[in-house]
Every structure is written in C-alpha cells, then in structure tokens.
Amino acid sequence: MRHAASPSLDRALSVAHRLFDDLHAIGFDGRGMTRPSYGRRETAAHDLIEATARAHGLEVRRDWAANLLVTYPGRDRYLPAVMTGSHLDTVPCGGNFDGAAGVLAGLAVLLAWQMEGCRPLRDTTLIVIRAEESAWFPLSYVGSRAAFGLLGPQDMQTPRIDNGKSLAEHIRDAGGDPDVFAEPSRHLDPGSIDSFVELHIEQGPILIDREIPVAIVGGICGSFRFRRARIIGRGAHSGATPRGFRADAAVAASRLVIALDELWARYDADGQEMTVTVGVLRTPDDAHFSAVAAQVDLAIDVRAHDPALLDAAEREIRALAASIAETSGVTIDLGERTGSIPAIMDPTLLSMAELAASESSVDPWVMRSGAGHDAAVFAGRSVPTLMLFVRNQNGSHNPDEAMELTDFDEGVLVLERLLRRRADRSAVTEA
Ligand SMILES: [Zn+2]
Fold first, then answer.
1. How far is the CA of 92 from the centre of ligand 1 (A)?
2. d(CA 334, CA 380)
3. 3-state secondary structure at position 13
C-alpha cells in the first residue's frame, strides 16, 4: 500500500519505474543482469541516468573516476551538501535491483523536488557510483574509494578478472582521467558533505520473513577473508597407502570446515552476531578418485559488527589452522588476508529516519547489514551515514532478485522525507 505521496513524487516514481525496465534492457544477458564494473553496459546505465537528469534540468558532472554526480541546488550552495546514491554495476548474472534501487530512489527524490519547485537550503547530490561489486576487480568499493582519493598506484594497475585490462585503462575508456587519481583537488572532501544516505535492497531473507517493506540500517558488518587459503598434503595411491602414511588434504580441509562451523556455533550460542562461511572448497582439476588429495583450495569469509569480535575470531582461526595442520600432517597456508572494518551509522540520522518512517506510516524497524556497501566508505571518512533497506525476495546476486515496486515506493517516501529534513537543516543547528 502506498502512503500519501505528493503528485510530483508520484510522477517521479513513474519515471523511476520505467528506468528499471530500461536498466533491464541494458543489462540483460539472456538469464540475468550482467553490467560489469567499468564495462560498456555499466557506462550505458550511467548515460541513461545522466540523460534523464539533464532532461529534467538537474546539474550533472562526472568525477575523475567516471562516477556520476547529479545535483539539485539548494538555496545556500556553500553549505555542506546532502548526498545519496548507490551503484549500477552487477555481479555476473545478477539481478536488476541490487544497486539500481538506490540510484533510482535518489533520482526520484531529486526529480520530485524539481517538478514541485521546492528549494531546500542545501544542495542535494545523487552519486551514481562505479564498480561496487568486487566480482570484477578484486578490490572493495572501487568507485566510492576513488571519489575520496583512497586508491593507490597498485589499485590502479589491478587487472579486471575477466579481461586482464587494468583499472586505470577501464577508467580512461569510461571517459575518466586516471592520471589524476592522487590529486586532492579532484577528490570529494568529506567536509563538504553533510550526510550520506544509501537506499539498497535487503540481500538476505529477514524483511520477507518479518513482512516489513522498509528497514533502517543501524550498522554495516566488517569482515576478514582468506580468499585463497591452501592446504597441501601428499598425493598417494588410495589402495596402497595405509592410514599412518597419509597426509590427506581433503581430510584436513574437512576438519577445518567443521572446526570453523563449531567456532561460529559457539559465538552464536553466546549471542554474538557473526557469520562464518567457506564459499570455496575444491581439489585441483586433475585430482583423482583413486588418489589421496594432495591439495585443497578454500575461501573463508568472516563478518561481524564488532571489531574486537573479528580480531578474536581471526586469532582463533589462525590457531585452529595451525593445530589441524599439525594433527593432519599437512601444511595450511591461509594466504593473503583482506577485509573491511565495520561501519557505524550516525545516531542523529538514525533518529531522523525513524521520524521520517513514522510520518510515512512505515514501521521504523532497525536492523544491521551483513553485506558491505559503499555507505561504509562514507562512514569511514566520518561523513554522517545511514542506510535504508527495501524488502526483496529470493536473495541477491542472482537473476531472481524480486523487489515489489510498491515496497520501493515506500522506501522512496522515507528517503524523500529524510533527505528533505536533512537538506533543510540550518547551518546553526550544525554546531
Ligand atoms: Zn549492492
């Protein structure tokens, strides 16, 4: 059910609904959406948003990394701006709502204001962010980190997984200017941003389960990953090698996986919010049914909201690996550790969002995000940050993502009220 949208917001929402279809046409690969980071289709999606924004008289610019910024000017252009936004790239064969929902929600708000002719105090800027999905470049939050000047020379040379071309080349092909990646004058200044709010589909089953269309996100998980852990045992004939002579990588891997699950169960029983996932577990292609496994590759992903919990879990996992290696007679190399720190959402924005939700007849329910988002980068730069989640069926990163447009509309209602309140916040109350 829709609640009390103004006629201009209604019109802006119909524009957004049509844009979902246009984005689908751009990204459809025959089964799902494939809009690779800095690929032709991601650029076409950015062009579509830019053309729509221009047609409605909004200000448009692109930064050095080809992120798109669409601004609705406020009355005092010197005040820090309110920002919203998300990404338009997808994982291979993903869905049409991950990322796109937040971009179109922000655009709908700016279009509605433009149609209505309202003029909040501050500038409000939609940022359409490049390369959020680390499926293409093995780096997190490329576009938003680029916007703040957080990419190093090594990041710029990172090859895209499918075509081997560097990030710098991709940025140039998309119309950006990779040579200026380290020039502060080309970066977003956190001091010029009043706040950042990202609307996103929920990528887990919680809102469906609770029958809640929109939720406020009170925190984003941090993580650590061992993406390329490797267990090295000793290959041997399966019939001719007695127990005592084996160094079986498959058995060691199984012990490690069970031990990780038991570790998680223990934290879980303790009421500690955490996830532990082994998403990759494989013997090499030339492994054979009649040979003891000489090698197993696996990936371990651990997420939690509490940095101390992440540290404790990492210490335990390293100790577990060492002890299983010892008892199984194998070598366990956890490999490079990558990760991100948990993001704290801004308490003032959170209470403003609760108010905005109540005014939109949406139950102001607060949850946490187990998935990472660009909002974490803004929070990491000390920009007051918040997220809104919209209910979505069938999970995410697959072609079956299903967000009801009526739920999207409810999310936009809350976002509009929140951004408007924030954009009208005077400089005096800022202190
Ligand atoms: Zn996303």
1. 13
2. 27
3. helix
